[in-house]
Amino acid sequence: MSQLSGTATGGGGENLLFLTDEQLRKGIEAMFFAYRGFTADPDRILETMDYGRAHHRAVHFIHRSPGTTVSNLLGILGVTKQSLNRVLRTLIDDGHVRSEKGRRDGRERHLFLTEKGEAMEKSLSDAQRARMRAAYRAAGPVAVQGFRQVLEAMMDPGLRDYYNRLRDGA
Amino acid sequence: MSQLSGTATGGGGENLLFLTDEQLRKGIEAMFFAYRGFTADPDRILETMDYGRAHHRAVHFIHRSPGTTVSNLLGILGVTKQSLNRVLRTLIDDGHVRSEKGRRDGRERHLFLTEKGEAMEKSLSDAQRARMRAAYRAAGPVAVQGFRQVLEAMMDPGLRDYYNRLRDGA
DNA sequence: AATTTACGTCAGCCTTGTTGACTTTCCAAG
DNA sequence: CTTGGAAAGTCAACAAGGCTGACGTAAATT
Fold first, then answer.
1. CB A100, CB A58: distance < 8 Å
2. Most buried of the four, A85, B31, B153, B158, by CB within 10 Å?
3. Which helix (H) or strand (E) holds A85?
4. What is the CATH T-level fold of the domain A18-139, as seen in this structure?
5. CA→C1' distance for A75 and C24 (Å)
6. Is the minimum CB–CB distance between B136 and chain A shorter than 8 Å?
7. Cα→Cα distances A94→A62, A64, A91, A97, Å
């Protein structure tokens, strides 16, 4: 590490004019530990119902975009249809998701949460939002703005498009 | 969505005085998509060497804290010793990691990267840092500050302690 | 001397990802 | 109207990487 960074503000080391490997490494570790926290609460709930993170992801995006198709979901989640199908199968069998044949295009299946599914989604996202809300409150509005900016810049372009399409109401 | 937020700045909707479920959901999705980007580059490299994310995590923290013990690593990674051992076993067999019996406490095993291991770590972290650096550059120093603040607030307290201990040089 | 700690390992199980092959259904273009 | 290709579902087999439980060994602690 160069002596140059010795001039940065003591404790925090917030001088980001040059992005040292040190500072980048801290960001990497922050992502790692924060993601653990991010998933911890829903994970605990999912465990009690014999579901996993994969189910949560599917439920989240079906809730977010009711009537979305399977191939749409495949694109968002980035898994194979066999993998998704296994998860979707159990969700449908358990009465959390309803699959409806497309009226315009009969090959497509449009996915919806049932009332039961919506209730489950709510319990999962309530837990996740609670932590997010606490973090937002603790960090403040300016930090939240920066948080989102950095995350968006980290996404793969293709996924960023998905993200923005969702954001603007797909 | 209440009409009240209609007064927020047009495009961004950055009024975060009340944390709506909408805004929190965007943050949740941002975490999801960004984490995918975060792991994408190392994942591609790891694939070529028959390693997975688990190996990357182990290598990262051994590089970060050379001489760290197995139980230390267990605490940081939050997996069982059987799970970690499987990964560690292959890393040692492949000559990426060296395990050294403790001199003060002979029960402990201190873990180090070999030269080969350091080289691998560098190729992985170079890739990950490149994306992080680009994101930091794109978002700017203020955003980076906020990014870190929110992430830290999202961590579980126990993991936050680990994070800070690492941060301040363990 | 007995107990506890740190580590390693065997065996078996589960989730969630993968590939490959095959079928059904249906839209659209020739 | 036929045919090609897209969307979906399914079967089978496999791998990574989690997990639990049980057991063994060396070394520190009491």
1. no
2. B31
3. helix A81-93
4. Arc Repressor Mutant, subunit A (1.10.10)
5. 23
6. yes
7. 15, 20, 5, 8
Structure token digits, residue A52:
């996993």
Q: Which two tokens stand for residue B43?
A: 């994942």
Where on strand D do bases come within 7 A of a protein Cβ? 5-13, 16-22, 26-29
Looking at A19-23, A57-61, B4-8, B87-91, which range is the least confident one? B4-8
- Residue pLDDT, tens place only, A134-159: 999 999 999 999 999 999 999 999 89
Instruction: Sketch the domain layout of chain A as residue ranges.
Output: 18-139
Interface test mutation site (partner A, options B19, B20, B148, B159, max chain A beta carbons within 10 A): B148
Q: Render pLDDT for B72-127 as a digit per residue (tens, 0 to 9).
A: 999 999 999 999 999 999 999 999 999 999 999 999 999 999 999 999 999 999 99
Q: Is B31 on the interface with A (CB under 8 A)?
A: yes
| B20-139 classified as CATH 3.30.420.10 | no
A53 neighbors A46 (Cβ within 8 angstroms): yes
